[in-house]
Design goal:
Layout (H helix, E strand, L loop, with lengths): L2 H9 L3 H33 L5 H23 L4 H22 L5 H29 L2 H29 L8 H16 L8 H11 L2 H7 L1 H31 L5 H31 L1 H4 L2 H15 L3 H26 L5 H32 L4 H20 L1 H13 L15 H10 L5 H13 L16 H11 L7 H8 L5 H13 L7 H7 L3 H14 L4 H13 L2 H10 L5 H12 L4 H15 L16 H8 L2 H13 L2 H12 L5 H4 L2 H6 L4 H9 L6 H17 L7 H31 L7 H26 L5 H7 L4 H14 L2 H10 L5 H9 L7 H4 L16 H15 L4 H11 L7 H7 L1
Helix pairs in contact: 2-5, 2-6, 2-7, 2-11, 3-5, 3-15, 4-5, 4-7, 5-15, 6-11, 6-14, 10-14, 10-15, 10-16, 10-17, 11-14, 13-14, 13-16, 17-39, 18-19, 19-20, 20-22, 21-22, 22-24, 23-24, 24-25, 24-26, 25-26, 26-28, 27-29, 28-30, 29-30, 30-31, 35-37, 36-37, 36-40, 36-41, 36-43, 37-44, 38-39, ...
Length: 916
Amino acid sequence: MRASEQQAQSRSPPFTSRVALATGTLLIAIASHSVRETARDALFLGGLPAASLPYAYLIIACGAILVGVANRFLLDRVSHRLLLVGTLVSATGVDLLFWQISARPSAETLFALYAWTGLLATAITMQLWLHLAEVFDVEESKRAFPLIAAGGLVGAALGSALSGALLFFVDTHDLLLASGGLLLVASCVASALPARDGAAADGEEELRRSAGLAATLCSSYPLRITLLAVSVAVLATGIDFVFKHTVAASVPSEMLGRVFAWIHTAINSAALLFELVVASWALRRLGVTRTLMILPCALLVAVQCFVAMPALFTAMAQKFVDGTLRPSLHQAGTEVLFQPLSPQTRNTVKTLVESLGKRGGQALASLGILVASGLQVDLRWIALGLMPVAGASLVASLGLRRDYIERFRERLSGLAEEARVRLPRLDLHSLEALVANLSSPDDSQVLAAIDLLERYRRTSLVPPLLLYHPSVPVVLRALELFRNGSHPFLEGILHRLLEHSDEDVRSASLDALVATGSADVPLERMLRGDPSAKVRSTAVVALASRRADDGDLITFVRGLLANGTPEERVAVARSLPRLPGALAAPLARETLAGAAAPVAKALAFALAQESSLPASSLSASSLSADWDPVLIDLIARRDTRAAARVALVGRGAAGLRALETALDDPETDPVIRRHLPRSIHRFGSARAAEILMRNLEGAPLGVHFKILRGLGRMRTDDPDLEVDEALVEREAGLAMDRAVEMLGLRVACFLWAGAHPGPDAGRSLLGRMLADEEARSLERSFRALHVLDPKAEFDAIFETLHAGNAERAEGLELVRHLVPEDLRDGLLALTSRDAAAAKLERACRQRALAPVSDLVPLLPSEPAEDSSWITPELLQVLERCVDRLRDDPDPVLREVARCAFGRERSASPVARAEAR
């Protein structure tokens, strides 16, 4: 995490303070809206017929588009908080204006008041929730948004109750004075809201990253959110019209204000109760997308009831379901949907959803109601038309899960993807430029041109005359290119280079000349007459390749490897792979026993090069099976491991068989065995996956982890590669069980130390080892899950769980959606930042593992200094945990535990009683 981000987070107020300020702002603002809404509904239906409602809906829908555009324009220029406070203060003055002119309102005034109430609610809620999306990350939003939404419902209930109480003493239009006063109070609370983290640093970058409104509209995720908003808005508008039309026909006009006030109070109180009891639990347990399916299903049932029995009771039931679920459960879930989006995209999509989505749906419903009213359609048929809309909203909710998870994957993709560079296409002008660079006086340009021509497989355009270049690096690079070449004049040039002043050039020229298969190679002369040991070593190896039965030469090679200078040993090691394997492999193994790093690296690099070459005149094959033991030994060394793996992969099926034999052999050195799975996975074949799967069960912990990593990489490269999913899922569960067990034993060691004070005797070291093994086991579980579903990128998810708060929250959200149910709660418990005892209690709810699970009900809430927390039952379980540590399968952990607690098992409770 960048330093600026850390500083911004350090300045951020505590979580409870942010929640309290946000809840207070929304509570007072919604209370003001409820008071204003009661006055609006009573004045409108008291002065105009209910058939005028669709026109008011249309005015709100059209005005919402303008509000959205203005809001989007201002968000790019001022902060969210400043815009929200400015809106609240300005709205106070508008409320006071309506209070003045609504004592004797005209039809235009009533329509303006109705539209003002809806548009103001849209602007305030949109601005507030956009700001809160910047203040809370996705993990905090799961806890905060239901509480903040509950505050809005409290405000709605209080506002409705306040309206009903005030109407006993004042006229209906006087409620607008009260709503204006509440808005002024809300602006004071909103001014104390925290500013968004990192706004100043990230604003310009986000503006540059924004793809524009057109690109945002083309994305499936915003479109699905918008479709859901449209369908829910159509449902809400239709239900609101049916409800108000039924109430206006059943209640005297002078009683409308009080009736609406008390109905809204009852609905808002029920919504508040639902929010506090159900909403937060549903978001955490069901997930966001499943939670959003509840409202469409409930409304579908409520609409069917009204269609079957159209009456005031069923109309109120529809309104009750909508008013209870939509502002509580559905609102909180919808706000969480915006969390995976970047701030700039979030502003655009939020505006789109509020203006085109919610208000566009309101406009569609209004037009439909106007058409139905013109045709004098019964309310039952209007309700019947809402049923397919409920079905459409359910479909939109079903399709959100995949896109919601994909957005988080895109945010985390930087942890799992590597850049892939593609060569541009080589045209005629580029080709001419490359060939021209071969004559450049700058050596770097010549070398770059050679490299590029080789990558484009145009080495035939490199002239052999380049071997006469004055630069030694250029000549050596050209010799490497012309090895095994077939140019008609190459042999003569190589003969001349045998007289070059540089020993590296002479050695490489002799090597290339032998590789051409020429019969006229002065090996004897170079062996006896060249002053360079490196050239003589090359000549010796070349002679040995032609006279493999010559004992004198073999003795000389062994002598160079054993007693030569470091340069001589490196030169011979570099040439050994070109000898017959039966002759050179035993010499190589003898050399590796005490070889220095340069010699071993030269041998490994030469083996890797030789494995990629076709059979030559120096050997019957590029690499024979005699070299397999040498390559297996080279895997154990860090500096030669990569080259040895390249050589084994170059041997194809034979190399894979050699690795399989070494992995299956229990006598294989554990140091070598631990690195074999990574070598096998590089073959990337179904056979390689089968070998790794067969060795997964029962493998030592270090090898087991390497097998999972190898399988994970293979599945990442080829997701269609078949694996035994049941076995891998079982391994994920076993790894998680191991992590839970290590956590429980760590808690037991802490309690044991408190019950048996004394010298440390290695207990602190044991605690650190248990914590390390817990972390490794947890990673093994995620590695296994990655093998099961490589597209989910569980390796990247695991990395985010150790990152900053925002990245960690996104990783936890993906765990909730992607991990199988039988592992989800356990992994969430192990990755939480709770105390060890609390984590153990949560983890053991899903995975009961004796004896650590027996420890949970006996855990003291707070160990007291007087040892009153130590009970016989607790001591008995602690002794069982200690005995379990003495028999741990990890030999190092087992030995440290025996040093910390003694090698003998604890006496039984009966024996201790007899001793006392």
